[in-house]
Design brief:
The protein is α/β, with parallel strands linked by helices. The protein has 10 helices and 11 strands.
């Protein structure tokens, strides 16, 4: 994801720092770079803001009155994996290691160049959005306008749920686990633990085709592989071009 892509998403950043000048400087600079920005002067105020708003990244100063940034990070990491960048006037390796051990994604020492902070924020967000995308790809198989979730066994067409019976869910999950791979009846039966008879497999495939194919006589997705059985064709290469 390029920097211009990051801007288009209009990520929301929360700056937590007791230094008002730094907060205002960063707020203005990041807003000029198309980010949404909120700010808090301490962790108590930050917690109240986070109760009502969702943020994509936190910029946290370590040395603050009351609860310091490290303790705040340790606390929120118990329930929240939001990306964080720590700021501190302390430059010792021990302090940096403490922040990373508590779950910080990056670390900058004051004083710093705003452009460097911007680049570090963009890099964190690129990594985070890439991880989310990879996770979604692992949980879902996409083909045409359809998306099948391996955990819930739910099928969606253009984000609208498509009803499947239990046997249809199990069978489609079998194909979606190994898309673009031919399956024989024996392969399907073994994958499902021998719980689906040959006739039941044929019936379930016909029903699934009625729900996902425009013309069942010429299936685009759940195709017949002559001499073997069937295969879920996702047309991945065509979609990539």
């Amino acid at each position: 994801m390029h920097n211009k892509d990051l801007k288009r998403y209009n990520f929301h950043i929360l700056i937590i720092d007791d230094d008002q000048k730094i907060r205002l400087l960063l707020k203005q600079f990041l807003e000029n770079n198309d980010f949404r920005v909120s700010d808090a002067e301490n962790t108590d105020q930050a917690k109240k803001i986070m109760d009502s708003l969702i943020f994509d990244l936190l910029v946290i100063d370590i040395m603050m009155p009351g609860q310091n940034g490290l303790d705040f990070l340790k606390e929120i990491r118990q329930t929240n994996s939001i990306p964080t960048l720590m700021l501190t006037a302390m430059s010792s390796p021990e302090n940096r290691l403490d922040g990373l051990e508590y779950g910080a994604d990056d670390y900058m020492t004051k004083p710093f160049e705003p452009r460097e902070l911007l680049l570090r924020i963009q890099n964190i967000l690129k990594r985070f959005t890439k991880n989310i995308k990879n996770s979604e790809n692992q949980e879902n198989t996409r083909f045409g306008p359809f998306s099948f979730n391996h955990k819930s066994l739910n099928l969606y067409k253009n984000n609208i749920s498509v009803h499947l019976t239990n046997s249809e869910q199990k069978l489609l999950n079998c194909f979606c686990k190994s898309p673009n791979t031919p399956f024989s009846r024996d392969d399907i039966n073994n994958s499902l633990g021998g719980n689906m008879e040959t006739r039941s497999i044929d019936v379930a495939i016909a029903r699934i085709r009625r729900k996902i194919e425009i013309d069942q006589r010429y299936p685009i997705y759940l195709q017949t592989v002559r001499g073997i059985g069937w295969m879920l064709q996702t047309h991945e290469e065509e979609n990539d071009n």
